[in-house]
Amino acid sequence: MEISSKEHTHFFSNNTIVPVDRSSFKSESSASKEKQSCCGGIKIFLGALSFVYFAKALSGSYLKSTITQIERRFDIPSSLVGVIDGSFEIGNLLIIILVSYFGAKLHRPRIIGAGCLIMSAGTFLIAMPQFFMGRYRYERFPSTINSTVGLSPCLQDKSQTPLSTLEKSQAKINAGCEKEAGSSMWIYVLLGNLLRGIGETPIQPLGITYIDDYAVEENAALYIGCVQTVAIIGPIFGFLLGSLCAKLYVDIGFVDLDSVTISPKDVEWVGAWWLGYLIAGVISILAGIPFWFLPKHLPKPESRKDSSSSSEHSKFIIEENKDQCTSYWQQAKLAEMAKFLPSLKNLFGNPVYILYLCASIIQFNALIGMVTYKPKYIEQQYGQTSSKTNFVIGLINIPAVAFGIFSGGLVMKKFRIGVLGAAKLSLGSSFFGYLLLLSLFAMGCENSDVAGLTVSYHGTKMMADYEEALFSECNSGCLCSQNDWDPICGENGVTYVSACLAGCQASNGSGKSTVFFNCSCVGTFESSQSSSAVVGPCQKGNECPKMFLYFLVISVITSYTLSVGGTPGYVLLLRCIKPHLKSFALGIYTLAIRVLAGVPAPVYFGVAIDTTCLKWGNKRCGGRGACRLYDSSALRYVYLGLTLVLGTVSTLFSVAVLWVLRKRSSPQDETLSANGERGTCGTKSRKDNFVNSDQLIQSTYWPEKETRL
C-alpha cells in the first residue's frame, strides 16, 4: 500500500500545485474540486469527440450522396467513381498501425486535432476542381440556349447555318479540348478522399482509449455509447445536405440561372456538389479546435487509482522504478514478438473465427456495394431526382439501420442470449433480410420509351444494334450525330436522343420553353396525332411512382432486418476467441474487412453497373464519358442480383458457423454463456485464457477496451 500511495503521489504532483509531502492531507473541499476538474475534463473531451464523430460521419455520407454528381461533372464511368470511393479506405490503411501504436505514447488530443485538420484539408481538396476546370457544359442544341440566330435542328444543309456561328462554335470546342486534354481533375477528388482517410484514422482508436483511461469505470460504457449515437446522426445530416446541394445548379453564383436549359430531372443535371464539401470541411476544422487545448493527461478517478488496469500513458510517465519498468517492458515486447506466429496459428486454427470472418467479408462486400450505388439505382430505376433520393435515404433508411442495431443489442440483453443464440439471431437476420431483398426484383420500372434505344421509331420493342438503330428513314435527310445526348419529349410520349434525330424542322422559343415543330419521326410513330416536341426527356410510366413507394417500404424493412444481426454477430466474434487474442483477432478482422470489402466492392459493383448502359456520353475531346441512359431491367438484375448472390454466400458461411457451434457446444457451456461467464467456441483447453495478457497488450492500443464496453 505504501508503494501504491507513493506512485499516486508522484503521478499527481505533475498536475497539481499541491506539494508532494502534503498531498496525503488534502481537505475534503480540495478533493471535491479535483473530482469536479476530472469530470469536467472528461466531459469536455466527450463533447469534442462526439462532434468529431459527427463531422467525419457527415463528410463520409455526403460523399456517398454525390456519387452520381461527380460521375456527371467529370464525365467518368461508375467503375472509376468506385475507385474514388475506395480511396478513403486505402488512406486509412496506410497509417492505422502507426497511429494505433505510437499514438498512445504521444499527446492523443492533439493528434486527433491534427487528424481533423488533415481531414478538412482533404475535404477542401475534393471541392477544388470546381474552381479550376471552368463552367459545366451540357449538350444542348443552339436554339435552346438564348440564341438570336434561328436554326433548324435538322441541318439538311450546312448553308442553313451562318459560317461565323459554325466557326465560333468549333473554336470554342477546340479551346475547351486543349484545356481538358492536359487535365484529369477527378484525380484531385481521389487524392482528397485519400487524405480524408488518413485524417480520420486517429479519431477512433485514440479517442476511445482516452475516454476509457480517464472516465469513471461505470460511466465509460455510457460515454462511448453517446459517441456512437452521435455518429449515427452524422449520416442523416450528410444525406440531407446532399439533398439540398443537389437542388442547386453546379455553377450557381457563376452563371445566370435563367440561361440554364436543363432541370434536376434531366440526366445531365449536376448539382452544387462542391458546396457541401466546403461546409463539411469547415465543420471538420471547428471540430478539431478543442483538442488543441485539452491536456495530455487527466487526473485518474479515485475509483480507478487502485485498478489493475493502467492507462495508455501512465506507464510512460511514472518515474519511480524506471529502470525496472524499462527492463520489464522490453521483456514483454520480446514475449509479444515470440508469441506472434503461435497466436496467428491459434487464431486461424479457430474454425468459428475463420468462418465468421469469411461470412463478414462477403456480407460487407454486398452491403458496401449496395449502399454506394443506392442513390444511382433509385435515380435510374424510378426516375427520381438526386435531391429527392438523398432526402429519402437520409430521413428513412439510415434511422432504420440505427434502430435495427439498437434492437439487436436490446434483444441480446433482455433475453440473456448466449453465443449459440447470437449465432442464430445473426443468421436469422441475414436470411430474412435477403429474402425481403428478393422481393425488390418485382418492384422495378420498365425502360423509358427512347426512340432508337429501347423502342424503334415505329413503336416496336427494341432491336439488337443500338447505335445503328438511332438512324431511321424519318431522319435520313438530316445531318445528325449519334454521339449527342440532347433529349426531347415528343407529343407521343416517346423520348428522342436529339431534336435532329427526331427530324424536327423548326423551333420556337428559347431555354426551357423551347418547342420543336414538324418533327418527322414523331409524326410517323404509331398513334401519333402531332409532330411537336419539348425540351427534356419524357417521364417514366404511370406505375413507376407506385413502385417507388413499394420499394421504399421494403427497403426500410430490409435495412432494419439486416441491421438487427449486427450486434449479435459482433458478440459472437468476441466470445469465440481467447481473451488474450481478442485485440489481435479484432485487428485482423478490421484489416480484412477494409482490404477485401471496403476497397474492391465499389469498384466491381461499378464495373457491373457500367455493363447495363445503353447510351454513353462523349467527352469534348473524344472518348467515352458518363452514361446517359441505363437499361432499367438489366440494372435491376445486376444491382440486386449481385447483392443477393453475395448475401446468399455469406448466409451459407453463417450456417456453417452455427453448425460448428452446435457440434462443439454442450448444454452446460450454453448455460454459462447465457450468464456472461464464457462463450461456447468449444476450445479444448481453457487454462491459457487468463495468462498475463493484460500486461503484454496494455502498452499499445487495445481494441478490447472498446469492444469490452
From TrEMBL:
GO terms for molecular function: bile acid transmembrane transporter activity; sodium-independent organic anion transmembrane transporter activity. Gene3D superfamilies: 3.30.60.30, MFS general substrate transporter like domains. Keywords: Cell membrane, Disulfide bond, Glycoprotein, Ion transport, Lipid transport, Membrane, Transmembrane, Transmembrane helix, Transport. It comes from the Eukaryota. It catalyses: L-thyroxine(out) = L-thyroxine(in); L-thyroxine sulfate(out) = L-thyroxine sulfate(in); 3,3',5'-triiodo-L-thyronine(out) = 3,3',5'-triiodo-L-thyronine(in). Signal peptide: none annotated. InterPro entries: Kazal_dom, Kazal_dom_sf, MFS_dom, MFS_trans_sf, OATP. Residues 669-688 are annotated as: Disordered. Pfam families: Kazal_2 (PF07648), OATP (PF03137). It is a multi-pass membrane protein. Residues 45-665 form the Major facilitator superfamily (MFS) profile domain. One of its GO terms (cellular component) is basolateral plasma membrane. PROSITE patterns: KAZAL_2 (PS51465), MFS (PS50850). It is found in: Cell membrane. The keyword Disulfide bond applies. The chain crosses the membrane at residues 40-59, 80-104, 110-132, 220-250, 270-294, 353-371, 391-411, 423-443, 547-574, 586-609, 638-661. The keyword Ion transport applies. Residues 468-523 form the Kazal-like domain. NCBIfam families: oat. Belongs to the organo anion transporter (TC 2.A.60) family. This is Solute carrier organic anion transporter family member. It comes from Horornis vulcanius.
